[in-house]
Amino acid sequence: MPDVVEAMGDTRRVLGVAVPERRVWWAMAAFAAVCIVLVGWSPQQRVGDAGEYMAMSWNITRFRPPALTEEDIVRLDQHLAELEPGLKDYRGSVPRLPSLWADGRYDMLHFWMYPLLASPFVGVANVLDVPDTYGFAAFNLLLVTLVFGIVLRRRGALAAVVLCCSPWWWWIDKPHTELLIVSMIVLALLWRHDRPRWGMAAMAVAMSQNISIGPAFGIYCLAVAVEHRRALVATARHWWVLAGVAAIALVHPLYYFWRFGSYDATVAGVGQGLRIPTVTRMVTPIVDPYAGLLMWWPGLLAVAAVGGTVMAWRRVPRRRTAADWFVVWAPFLVAVAILFGQAQNKEPAAGGTFAMLRFAVWMSAFAVFGLHRDAFRGRVLRPLAVVIVAGSVALSLHVARPSRPDVWYTVRPTWVADLLNEHAPRAWDPPPQVFLTRQWRMFTPIESVANDACTKLLGVSGRWPEMCDAPADVPADCAQAWFCYANWNGDGWWFSAEDDIG
């Protein structure tokens, strides 16, 4: 593929790996330096699920299982207490769920692949007697810098900057899996044509950390098999690589089958099973006015939309077989599968983020199809893209700098959400947990609530918010539902029952 070779620049190889040219190294070094400065200004603390990842990694660095005994938990709390005041908010970091207790050890609700990969860096942090979070920060920084360099070589500087100098920054110093998952998806999408086995391995790592990516992994592998066919298994080494990919993908369900007879901890621990989500729930990470990608990262979508349109317009039509069409549309199917998987989460508004849904970060990976250097040539498109990207970087530094605290439970509703709720409340019903959290501005009390103008009400078990007049003529299905939206249209109320918090 000449375009791939050209995009890779210098084709010198070391141990079979292409070595990038000097300008790419300098760009990667500059990006890493900016990230290091941002991390240095950020106070170290535990957010969201970070306590689980820190606990598992701490145990792994001591060559113990990722599941913890009571003695392990006592030693971990003692270790974290010794790091104060450099580390804050560490208490209660290990949930003791009776349903996840076996053989004297507590497993976590999240898998241990990410803590395992970060554990060497955490071990170094322990030797240096600095907070364990710096070990995760080092791993995150190394991973994102690698992605920055690969995107730079294959898509160009604009793509690398808009994708990596972005809300990704907020997670750089956080023990959270968002950067691992989105990085693996980006690499898989970029490698699917010329490095398919590497792409499958990247998707397998993402799936091993979060089982909801399983359907997307299956579609990706099928598309790669259709495109490359026998070339995937041309040699014995290829077979061994594919066996390794299968092992990575299966380690998550096999581990929990061995421990609890289930394929995932959320099923064994909190009884969360498969459900068929609504279209609204699936697209929430992208379009939700409170926490969606469009609201908090508009520059990415703007540049990707322009670039994708230009590339599609320039593409020369040609005849394709059904298999060809499947390969072409496979990334879209993978994206839909990921949206379906994230919609299984019954608490989409959980913490561990500055304001944007964590699942929206996953979806940002698919912007690589519109972020191509060839799309932004000319006196109009290139300056336009530069302006949009510069604005995107500035916005990211403002709202998603690593030093910004986890404000999910205190941040105000966005102006777009307020505008819609007041003037077009029927246009969008967010997941009830999102509406509850943002309107109450606290940790999700399950109580009826409304916007300030009382044009959008959320009833809970038939009870309506006291600050507004209760709607009249409430349908029976709405009164009996766990949640129900009442939207004022100027003449009367429109009702929408919701049976799930997410």
Task: Quickly describe the structure.
The chain has 502 residues and is α+β, with helices and mostly antiparallel strands. The chain has helices spanning 2-7, 22-40, 50-61, 70-81, 113-127, 132-155, 157-164, 178-191, 196-209, 214-228, 236-260, 265-270, 279-287, 293-296, 298-314, 322-342, 358-363, 381-399, 415-423, 432-440, 476-480; strands at residues 13-14, 17-18, 44-45, 87-88, 101-102, 105-106, 449-450, 456-460, 483-488, 493-498.
Topology:
Layout: H1 2-7, E1 13-14, E2 17-18, H2 22-40, E3 44-45, H3 50-61, H4 70-81, E4 87-88, E5 101-102, E6 105-106, H5 113-127, H6 132-155, H7 157-164, H8 178-191, H9 196-209, H10 214-228, H11 236-260, H12 265-270, H13 279-287, H14 293-296, H15 298-314, H16 322-342, H17 358-363, H18 381-399, H19 415-423, H20 432-440, E7 449-450, E8 456-460, H21 476-480, E9 483-488, E10 493-498
Parallel strand pairs: 3-4
Antiparallel strand pairs: 1-2, 5-6, 7-8, 8-9, 9-10
Helix pairs in contact: 2-6, 3-5, 5-6, 6-7, 6-8, 8-9, 9-10, 9-11, 10-16, 15-18
Can you describe what's shown?
Residues 1-10 have low confidence and may be disordered. With 502 residues, the chain is an alpha+beta fold. The protein starts with a helix and ends with a strand. It is built from 21 helices and ten strands. The protein has helices spanning 2-7, 22-40, 50-61, 70-81, 113-127, 132-155, 157-164, 178-191, 196-209, 214-228, 236-260, 265-270, 279-287, 293-296, 298-314, 322-342, 358-363, 381-399, 415-423, 432-440, 476-480, and strands spanning 13-14, 17-18, 44-45, 87-88, 101-102, 105-106, 449-450, 456-460, 483-488, 493-498. It is 54% helix and 6% strand. The chain has a four-stranded antiparallel β-sheet. It has a two-stranded antiparallel ribbon with strand order 1-2. A two-stranded parallel ribbon has the order 3-4.
